[in-house]
Amino acid sequence: MDQEMINPEPIEYVLKRSNRKSLAIEITSDGKVIVRAPMMVPVKEIEQLIEKKRDWIREHQTKQEIRKERDRVLYRGSYKTVCVEEHKSNMLSIELTEESIIIRKPRGFELNVSAYLEHWYRKEAAKAIKESVERHGRQMQVTYGRVAIKDQKTRWGSCSSLGNLNFNYRLIMAPERVLDYVVVHELAHRVHMNHSKAFWDLVGQVMPEYEQCRIWLKEHGSELMI
Ligand SMILES: [Zn+2]
What pLDDT, on a 0 to 100 scale, did the predictor assign at position 66? Predict the structure, then answer.
């Protein structure tokens, strides 16, 4: 039986020569390999070092990949890349594009990106949820008390016996119709304080496709809970 050696995939790298005295390997934040080398070191020696460090390089590249994944967030049902840029203004701002959420900060300003993003999510959630409650409240002709946006770990929404409505700010990560479904669900509790057939019939009247929204929440719920 023939045995075939499978050559491992070659590691691509950028070679930067300078007046330095020793060889060094660096992995950039986007996973590129940079080799810094003294002027006279032969390429063969450089490639031997890369081979020796193969596992270490691959491990670091994988870590950078995972970090990149983590920088993707759900917003209104689609994944966006979070980019942080510096600008001349002394204000913090956020711009939403098709593919990304661009945060702009003053030069040199230390920003806790996830805390700022959460603060922005809460603000956007409050706007979207209140608008949806008003619209569907009118359509369903039901009254309600105060509308609060909360950080609830286990529920999307709730409706008290006094008609006060609470919603999870993470609903802003879900598609618009899913957010609407949770609103319609809580408003329907203003008519039926249970999950009876009459309750689901009412939800279905306002939103015939509510089953799909429930499925979406089941499938993506854990992502929204991070
Ligand atoms: Zn319910």
Answer: 60
